[in-house]
Amino acid sequence: MNDQDLDHRVRLATFHFLEEQTQLRGEVLPREILAQGFEFDGQRVPLIGPQGIFKPALLHETPLSITTVPEVEGKRPPYDDQIGDEGLVRYRYRGTDPGHRDNVGLRLAMQRQAPLVYLYGVVPGRYMSCWPAYVVGDDPRGL
């Protein structure tokens, strides 16, 4: 199986997992469930990690999910992600290097039209998942 076939199958399995979990638990999922993820061909596939742009080890190039952390009173969020009036999320790059592997992965997801999972932090430890989400623009100068 080539990398793109594997990528496609993992994404479909991810969406199926999220559908099951939202039916069981509701629209807002605990981080523990997302971090545990599911098993695919004998390998665990988590949906969330310590970084906002997350690619599980099973995937080779494009991330599986992007996360906006919840607001915490008195604490500034690490990135200024915004949801615009048109319903599009303006997701910030990781750091200041447009060539960072995570940022390159998002760009590749845009070029391949790879569906992602967008995890929006509602409160600490709880996330609303939106899928499929697509990268539709790229602004490396807007770091």
From TrEMBL:
> Does this entry carry the keyword Hydrolase?
yes
UniProt keywords, alphabetically: Endonuclease, Hydrolase, Nuclease
Molecular function terms in GO for this entry? Answer: endonuclease activity
Top-level taxon of the source organism: Bacteria
> What protein does this entry describe?
HNH endonuclease
Q: Which organism is it from?
A: Eiseniibacteriota bacterium
